[in-house]
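BUG: 3D viewer hangs when loading the predicted structure for this chain

Environment: internal workstation, default settings.
Expected: structure renders.
Actual: progress bar stalls at 90%.

Input used:
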Amino acid sequence: QVQLVESGGGLVQPGGSLRLSCAASGSIFSIYNMGWYRQAPGKQRELVAIIITSSGSTNYVDSVKGRFTISRDNAKNTVYLQMNSLKSEDTAVYYCKVEYRSPDTGQRLVSWGQGTQVTVSS
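Structure tokens produced before the viewer hung:
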């Protein structure tokens, strides 16, 4: 129902910036929240940032606070992750995630993007 297409990953030097985009299509009228997760080699996937639809509230993992900003463009049905002052520790595959209400059953469902590689290296 809800398909997420990610873009914006790539190679960047330490201290540089990247902006990740995640475009949603399908049943997108009842989205509870959208967020970004990341998974580095040998590590578990962790929440990086999330934005709550109803309140507009945002939350971030401590390690990215002050450097990353999550935002959403309702007109474009797209969520962004602006990443500044990137560090080597930020290297990971970044995944977009959406929680939404099924229009058929009312269930709270989850969709994931395909992942986009972010590599921070000199």
